[in-house]
Amino acid sequence: MDRRTFLSGASIAAATVATACGAQDSQTSGPAAPAVNRRRTRQLRMVTTWPANFPGLGTAADRVAQFCNEMSGGTLDIRVYGAGEIVGAFEVFDAVSTGAADMYHAAEYYWQGKHPAFNFFTAVPLGMTATEIMAWCEFGGGQELWEELAGQFGIISFQAGNSGLQMGGWFKREINTLEDFRGLRMRIPGLGGTVLRELGGAAVALSGSEIYPALQSGTIDATEWVGPWNDLAFGFYREAPYYYGPGFHEPGSALGVGINRGVWDSLESDHQAILRAACRAANNQSLAEFAHQNAVALRVLVEDHGVELRRFSDEMWMRIAEISEQVVADVGNHDALGRRIYESYLEGRRRGREWGRISEPDYFMQRERVLGE
Fold it and tell me: pTM of this prediction?
């Protein structure tokens, strides 16, 4: 969380309490009466693409609402509605854009039909990791470009969650060569699906609740979802024993809060600051939660359920990279704004790669070598 933003919100909240206390008659003897916050509460409705209380993804939305309520002293009250409670999962963007709802929590690549550059603010194949996309949005110009893009639809958006690196998926059979992708029917969305089709496979669009029955019936041969935590809950290991990772399609999947621009402009400055800080806090906590829960769930999958961990070969990675770069470039060349976003994204990824070569990956390798575990 940005320290100055948090302290600013805290200072305003403290000033509100002090004003309420100071309103008492200074001549009154005896103990002071409890302070009363007489400020009108602002209530907002948040619609989401997730089922209510869905672990990791849905709870990130709940945290934004919780943090706003706590930091505002209850004067900013956000009510969260799961997919289907007010509008359908993929209708939340239009609901917020038109003012039928105040805000949403979702993955921005769901809106690629509105503009393909929305993909850059969730994940693209061979794209940025979670920390890299956070750095790009916060300090590399990504946030300003995002606001320009979403502003065309009357929305302002902020990062508010991240699942971290996602796995490559669950497969009923081994994938040893590029030829094994031919004819493969796999549930994989977005640009990752485009890459799979270029490899000769068939990308199938399914909601979360439809995946397991499709694996069970043989409608699909493989699926990606998120990572060990959410994958374990869905029980994919019962139908597809080969678990491949890491994934190429979503190296750090950012989630976002989108707010109707008119609603945002109508908020008082302290409520705006609190909302920004709440999104940052939810973003950080989400990434930490996925890192912890994925580690716990991975051990259960391997030790209790005998899941076999596999990696795609170097040959596969080289071909996937070649296709991915062209797919992402096609998205970036959609129009002038898309091109600016694409070029800024590439620059952010370049910076991340330069630092990454001598930082965490090398450290991880050396740590494994010396610890021998």
Answer: 0.86
